[in-house]
């Protein structure tokens, strides 16, 4: 669940902005490890993305512009968030390609969007609200310079998976699949358990203004999802292979709790608007774990369905929505009764989703179908399903513009507007 609300020298990226075509420019990449399609055993893996050519953006149709800087100036029609998303339909307005392999895409709702490019490109790419590239942030760090004990000086690489913005939008917290370099020899794998002894990893804090990594925090093994609490107190991280949840004090940047989730492969996280309760999807099973953020006591919403992966909360905190990757459906859960009150089939392997600012619409990416679906949250019916690039894996709703961004693992980000 995204939070709503360095100075690194900008890397020279050869960008081609093609307004007249929606074709992606990409090449195949070597097979690498990726997240599994989950059932109760959660063992099969997704295909790796393809290696891409230098960063490009397209919107249909206008002209063609090329640049060799990290910033493009191509615009989109002015966007005003709709008063209601009911009755609107999505239309593709821009496609971003290039040296990206986005696992996730997250809007700050303040005019900045981050895409996490995993172990295939080792970067976070930063865009403005219109999809223009602002910066490419490498995931390279020197742990010794950040004061992490037990690590000699030297450059290490991470593998950005997911991100969450602080409530004030000043920071973004990014999980790293594994660390790569001296001192790290047991990189993570999606088929795993705590018994495998894979290396622990780190979460980065990125200063949004300077676009630099300013904090690194040790967490568990193969950290996946990240969420910040609405009150800004905690950062929550689900650790896929160590089966636990890291609780980070946002002010100090220190992990203050490590909670065993009592199930395999924790993934999605949602937090209620009061910051009292967090919900964690246990993708290797059928349950959602509840976390009391005052006492850290754990509870359980049982048997919601096979392979719960992603969670979003309604704006009023009364309803939880969950993608069930194993069942191929999206379920609605009443928070008070902890009962499933609705289900809808959206496509094959629904992965990530987001909810509109008005709470009336869900946007779901269907990985194996290569589609995105819009769901009426009240009736749990599909209102629209349209094709995307190959293997859509991440999605975000930008409440500043009302646009929907879809990250496709094959190497594109697609931006949709509604009308």
Shape: globular
Alpha-carbon Rg, integer? 20 Å
The level of helicity is under 10%
What is the level 1 CATH name? Mainly Beta
Number of strands: 33
**Uncertain spans:** 1-73
Number of domains: 1
**CATH homologous superfamily classification:** YVTN repeat-like/Quinoprotein amine dehydrogenase
Amount of beta strand: 35-45%
Describe the structure.
The structure is a single chain. It is built from 1 helix and 33 strands. It has 419 residues and is mostly beta strands. It has a single domain, classed as 7 Propeller (Methylamine Dehydrogenase, Chain H), CATH 2.130.10.10. The chain has a 7-stranded mixed β-sheet with strand order 5-1-4-6-33-32-31, with no helix packed on it. The longest helix is centred in the first third of the chain and has 4 residues, at 118-121. The protein is globular, with a radius of gyration of 20 Å. 54% of the residues are buried. Mean pLDDT is 86; it is low at 1-73.
Topology overview:
Blueprint: E1 15-18, E2 36-37, E3 44-45, E4 56-58, E5 64-67, E6 90-97, E7 104-107, E8 112-116, H1 118-121, E9 123-128, E10 133-138, E11 160-165, E12 171-176, E13 202-207, E14 212-218, E15 223-228, E16 234-239, E17 244-249, E18 254-260, E19 266-271, E20 277-282, E21 288-292, E22 298-301, E23 308-313, E24 319-324, E25 329-334, E26 339-345, E27 350-355, E28 361-366, E29 371-376, E30 381-387, E31 392-398, E32 403-408, E33 412-418
